[in-house]
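Researcher: Quick sanity check before group meeting.
Model: Go ahead. Protein one:
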Amino acid sequence: MPKKRTPMTKQLPAFLARTQFGQLMERASKNHERFIVTKNGQAKVVILGFEDFLKEVADTAPAEAREPTEKKGGKRKQSLPVLEAAIAKLQGT
């Protein structure tokens, strides 16, 4: 039985995350990497790919949030309104 792949988590300061945000997004989505962004040495936010978010954080996300709503350049894209609706439903608002 194959082992479940554990995503890598790296810490980086906010100023670096700000200047490298596009690259961090690519690495999070394609390589399943996770990043903890710190400010003044304290963890503030986590950057992770959308698929990892659905698998790890939002197992109870509504079906419409799991289905991509747009297709661009042969790749499926999740629309922001659908993602916001899924998060709101998870938060019970």
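Researcher: Fine. The other one?
Model: Protein two, sequence then structure:
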Amino acid sequence: MTASESKARLKGLFNITVTPFMPDGGIDVHGLAESIERLLAMGFDGLLIGGTYGEFATMSAEERATLFRHVVEVVRGRAATLLCSAHSDPRVAFELTQLATSLGGVPMVTPPFVSEVDEEHILAFFKSLAAASSSGLVIYNAPGIGITLSAGLIERLSDMEHIIGLKQEDLNPTVIDQLSNRLGGRIRLFCASDLAFLGPMMAGFDGLSSTNSCALPEIIRASYRAIEAGDARTATRLHKSWFAYRELARRFGQPQGNVDFSRFYWSSPPNFSSGVTPRVTPREAVQRVLRGGRYPTSPRPK
């Protein structure tokens, strides 16, 4: 697949797929395949594999290579597939980028995991990786992981051959405005958070990479499709409807909350009505939200 062909497919709603593990620590390939089939059947436009919520930082290069190969076998070209090839060692990032390309996926990488670099070092880093990927390269701008790329530096990176997209986690309104108006149409722009995607999408972004769609696929899909169709009122109403879960995730941690919620979701249809939740364990809180409770972040005034 060429970079231009990959770019054409990079748009819409992408699920940031959680990597399931077996009790012995191995990848649960059967569980992963079931998750992928369910998401594709629901009409998701693409998958992001081995990202932050896919736990790439805790996996060996060999495990990540196995993950890439398995996912590509399951997907069989039915949806665009981003394969996170980021690594603290640039040599490993290069190897994983080459593998992702050879498998027919689109590699996605973060800036170097060090702070003692300047813009020229960052440009050289991405240039070497972009040259290794004939299918294109997506930049992952993740302030929580390492260096935060400025809008100006991203614009310079977008001029490189084979740079075809950006997953943007810095959602400062000024930055979003700059990226949308300077880079719209040149590279694909993805909002990296389903907690606050309505603004970037209305500003002209091309897609959303969603973690919480692992737990709430229908409602996030419906909200995204509404904003995609220009129906901001419906998108806003749907987005507000799962605030209870967002409160719970902030209390117990989004990765843990997302995984626990996913476990219960398929056996208990969610109902996001009002209510009060007492102090409970994360799993109990998930069950209460599914039954229609609301988890407050602080006690209500008497």
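Researcher: One line on it for the slide.
Model: Confidence is low (pLDDT under 50) at residues 266-280, 294-302.
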